[in-house]
Amino acid sequence: MLRHCVYPGSFDPVTIGHVDIIHRLSRLFDRITVLVAHSSQKNYLFSAEERRDLVLSCMKGLKNVSVEIHEGLTVEFAQKTQAQVVIRGLRAVSDFEYEQAMANVNAQLAPGVETLIVFTRPEYGHISSRLVKEVAQFGGDLKDLVPTDVAQALRAKFA
Ligand code: COA
């Protein structure tokens, strides 16, 4: 059986923490779809197409990873593409309740799709897209927070 997982997120923008998870997934699954999804809770700095292209720019050399934009429910995408698993990253206890609620609703909507949690590496546990945008806005050093292409795109947004 082909092991296919979907890794959804806002990726506004993708950070080195996300990139690390994608690399780790690429060794565990046959196929990984990074899903640039839409959260009704967020106003995005980058368009869906820009977010997709920035994720793509960090995935060079990973043959089993593709990146898609999806406006609807993540589990619907998983069912449509025969993905058995939805992956979410967990950075700290503060992420837990939100992730648990989302996993439970997703399980109710699509019992055949499992949610698996991957722990973010401790060295990336403090990074979030919101903080990265704040650092960029005030001209701070982005080197240890985001890949080079993303740093460039952020600097262009706030120029
Ligand atoms: N390293 C660094 N940062 C990380 C990280 C990691 N490994 N994993 C998560 N984060 C950060 C992100 O940067 C983001 O930071 P921010 O809040 O400052 O922007 C935060 O953790 C959470 O982001 P993300 O993982 O992208 O989740 P999200 O809450 O923005 O997005 C969706 C959630 C889009 C995946 C979810 O709403 C979804 O699936 N939407 C489609 C509709 C749907 O199915 N809804 C669910 C119904 S139950």
Topology, element by element:
Elements lengths: L3 E6 L6 H13 L2 E6 L11 H10 L7 E5 L4 H7 L4 E6 L2 H17 L4 E6 L9 H9 L10 H10 L2
Parallel strand pairs: 1-2, 1-4, 2-3, 4-5
The chain binds coenzyme A.
Coenzyme A binds next to strand 1, helix 1, helix 4 and helix 5.
Question: What attributes does this structure have?
Answer:
Rossmann fold, 18% strand, alpha/beta, 42% helix, 5 strands, 159 residues, globular, binds coenzyme A, five-stranded parallel beta sheet
Describe the structure.
It is a single chain. This protein is an alpha/beta fold and 159 residues long. The protein has one domain: HUPs (Rossmann fold), CATH 3.40.50.620. It has a five-stranded parallel beta sheet with strand order 3-2-1-4-5, with helices on both faces. The mean pLDDT is 96. Bound molecules: coenzyme A.
